[in-house]
Specification:
260 residues, mainly alpha, GTPase Activation - p120GAP, domain 1, globular, GTPase activation, RasGAP_dom, GTPase activator activity, RASA2 protein, Rho_GTPase_activation_prot
Length: 260
């Protein structure tokens, strides 16, 4: 009500609450208010509310090093060397299924990014795990008859609003020094779209696949219709939304809350 743009308020608010160790109860409170207006379980935390923006900013602040150790090696690999890049992409960035080499390379990159993400839970910052734990239980309480909502509440943040966004815009998350060139950008867009689909709980079924606008994506994702992918996502979401103490991973990095 005070700020015309939520962006002006959210970042200093999140930094202040992080500093005073009050972010988790605050996010839980505003998320509970957000859920009261959510009528469908499949739209949970999909808008740009105060709750979702706070979680977004929190992940950007405390998750920088987590992203770096998880994604940077494979992001650096995309497009280098030229002969392994997805060269046969149309101007719109859609993959031509006739180019088998491009399909194999896309599958390689998606596999690698997905594998790095689902085995990275030990590196997930504790504050992120605590927030996801709260969101998971609030979602289950709001939609008690939907066994999957507790997972989609977490995946809507960690996959759709964190990993997938970092893949498609690595320069904004300091994973690459500059904006990627057009060809690399198209490749990253396809990888990001694939990660969003894999990370969306229960999305790899026939009814969901038929909703893809691009025929090639339907064909491409048929290769991912295996239970092991769904189980990997489920285990990862369980791990990052747990309050159990994790072993020190040796990858922590101090968070700077003051600027200027």
């Amino acid at each position: 009500e005070v700020c015309r743009d939520k962006c002006d308020a959210v970042l200093p608010l999140v930094r202040l609450l992080l500093h005073h160790h009050k972010l988790v109860p605050f996010v839980a409170a505003v998320a509970e208010l957000d859920l009261k207006d959510t009528q469908e379980a499949n739209t949970i935390f999909r808008g740009n509310s105060l709750a979702t923006r706070c979680v977004d900013e929190m992940m950007k602040i405390v998750g920088k090093h987590y992203l770096k150790v998880t994604l940077k090696p494979v992001i650096d690999e995309v497009g280098y060397p030229p002969e392994t890049s997805l060269g046969m992409l149309s101007p719109l960035g859609y993959l031509c299924l006739l180019d088998r080499h491009s399909c194999e390379n896309l599958r390689y990159y998606v596999d690698k990014v997905f594998r790095e993400i689902v085995r990275s839970s030990i590196s997930c910052p504790t504050i992120m795990c605590d927030v996801f734990y709260s969101l998971r239980h609030l979602a289950a309480k709001r939609f008690p008859n939907d066994p999957h909502v507790q997972y989609s509440a977490v995946s809507s943040f960690v996959f759709l609003r964190f990993f997938a966004v970092a893949v498609v815009s690595p320069h904004t998350f300091h994973l690459r020094p500059h904006h990627p060139d057009a060809q690399t950008s198209r490749t990253l867009t396809l990888i990001s779209k694939a990660i969003q689909t894999l990370g969306s709980w229960g999305s790899l079924n026939k009814s969901k696949l038929s909703s893809f606008k691009e025929t090639f994506m339907c064909e491409f994702f048929k290769t991912f219709q295996e239970e092991k992918f769904t189980e990997s996502v489920k285990k990862f979401l369980d791990d990052v939304s747990s309050t159990e103490s994790k072993e020190p991973s040796g990858v922590s990095e101090p968070v700077h809350l003051k600027e200027g």
